[in-house]
């Protein structure tokens, strides 16, 4: 009998943003997750509720201030008018993200696999498409930048996809999944390919 070992088999959360849907990239992105061995245990296309978006992108004042100060620097370098405090420019980022994320359908997904959060983060790439590595989802499919967002009325970053940052820990994964999925919407099943990915002893499987 084969034995299994799942040292860090976990679930993580992904959103394919409105730009991914509108540009017809959903299938290409899902293929990348499945090809590496991740399993989809929850998926739905829907319009994002604004309250859930604010819950999802919840930030503290330190985050707003840090981001706002960067926006101020960019505006000053271009000679743009400064008409509010740095922290308000920071809050404008989330306002713009919520506006963008609720502008069209999104695809929410829960993926499962060994070190799923870290694997997804590696596939997704850096937050800013302009500097994301070639071969990642953002590096291959988008070209937006912090600079363009900051000077274009602090609009939301069009970077195709959101994924839970593994640096935020398992609590962040559980929190984000809980915002967008009920327990009943998640499936617990086994793929035949999991034997090849995880089973220590393949006796009888390859014969």
Can you describe what's shown?
This protein is of the alpha+beta class. It has one domain: Alpha-Beta Plaits (2-Layer Sandwich), CATH 3.30.70. It has 10 helices and 4 strands. The protein has helices at 18-22, 26-36, 50-56, 61-78, 86-101, 116-124, 137-141, 146-151, 170-180, 193-198; strands spanning 9-16, 39-46, 106-114, 161-163. It has a 4-stranded antiparallel sheet, with helices on both faces. It is elongated. Residues 1-6 have low confidence and may be disordered.
Task: Outline the fold blueprint.
Elements: E1 9-16, H1 18-22, H2 26-36, E2 39-46, H3 50-56, H4 61-78, H5 86-101, E3 106-114, H6 116-124, H7 137-141, H8 146-151, E4 161-163, H9 170-180, H10 193-198
Antiparallel strand pairs: 1-3, 1-4, 2-3
Helix pairs in contact: 4-5
Short description:
The chain is of the alpha+beta class and 207 residues long. Helix content is 45%, strand content 14%.
């Amino acid at each position: 009998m084969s034995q299994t070992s799942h040292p860090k088999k976990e679930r993580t959360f992904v959103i394919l943003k409105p730009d991914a849907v509108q540009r017809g990239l959903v299938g290409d992105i899902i293929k990348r997750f499945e090809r590496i061995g991740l399993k989809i245990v929850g998926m739905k296309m829907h319009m994002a509720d604004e309250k859930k978006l604010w819950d999802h992108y919840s930030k503290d004042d330190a985050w707003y201030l840090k981001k706002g100060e960067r926006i101020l620097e960019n505006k000053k370098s271009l000679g743009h008018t400064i008409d509010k405090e740095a922290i308000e420019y920071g809050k404008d980022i989330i306002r713009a993200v919520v506006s963008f994320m609720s502008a069209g359908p999104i695809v929410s997904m829960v993926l499962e696999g060994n070190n799923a959060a870290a694997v997804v983060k590696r596939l997704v790439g850096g937050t800013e498409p302009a500097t994301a590595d070639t071969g990642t989802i953002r590096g291959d499919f988008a070209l937006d930048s912090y600079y363009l967002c900051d000077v274009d009325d602090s609009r939301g970053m069009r970077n195709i996809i959101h994924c839970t940052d593994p640096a935020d820990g398992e609590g962040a994964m559980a929190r984000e999944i809980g915002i967008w999925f009920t327990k009943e919407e998640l499936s617990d099943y086994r793929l035949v390919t999991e034997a090849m990915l995880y089973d220590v002893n393949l006796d009888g499987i390859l014969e």
